[in-house]
Amino acid sequence: MVTETLIHRFDIETYHRLISDGILREDDRVELIEGRIVDMTPIGSRHSAVVNRLNDLLTQKLQRRVIVSVQNPIQLLQEQSEPEPDITLLKYREDFYSDELPKGDDILLIIEVADTSLEYDRETKIHMYAKAKIQEVWLVNLLENCIEIYSSPLPAGYEFRRIARHDQAVSPKNFSDISLTANQILGI
User: Fold this and answer.
1) Are 41 and 117 in contact (CB under 8 A)?
2) Model-level pTM?
3) How many other CB atoms are there within 10 angstroms of residue 21's CB atom?
4) Is 4 part of any domain?
5) pLDDT > 70 fraction of the chain, expressed in percent and rounded
6) Per-residue pLDDT tens for 142-155?
7) Which domain range does residue 47 map to?
8) Which of 60, 68, 106, 170 lies at a CB distance of 3.0 to 4.6 Å from 102, suitable for a disulfide?
């Protein structure tokens, strides 16, 4: 006898109901990815330091031009995904998105910092961001000490990928007037 495996897909409304009903707690390290509730990997000290450094650098350089959102949810893919990127640059709004979570058009740049989650971020989350038409994503690769820059989304992934190392500069596509080096971001 062959047993068929059933997979239950969640939408954002159901996901939020699981939170409000106490089934998922606000401090659970999970996110909704393409209809699946996925455990997030633990955050180590280097990962945390890079996120804090990026927050500091971007907040200083982009004062009040954007909202620098740190490990907060965004909504993507027709109500099927609510990831929590490490850093998201959002279009500036006076209400700081108090009535609704940011969606695709609100997002100027997503930055994921990865060590143990590198393959998952690269193979799952980067592709999800491309499907959602996020124009630019940076993957801060702590294992190889580099920044992977993805741009020009296509349904199957990003058309362009560039790698920055050492003193090579990176600039957010929407803010070419600011520049950071890979070493600045990585703290090396």
Assistant:
1) yes
2) 0.92
3) 8
4) no
5) 96
6) 999 999 999 999 99
7) 42-186
8) 106
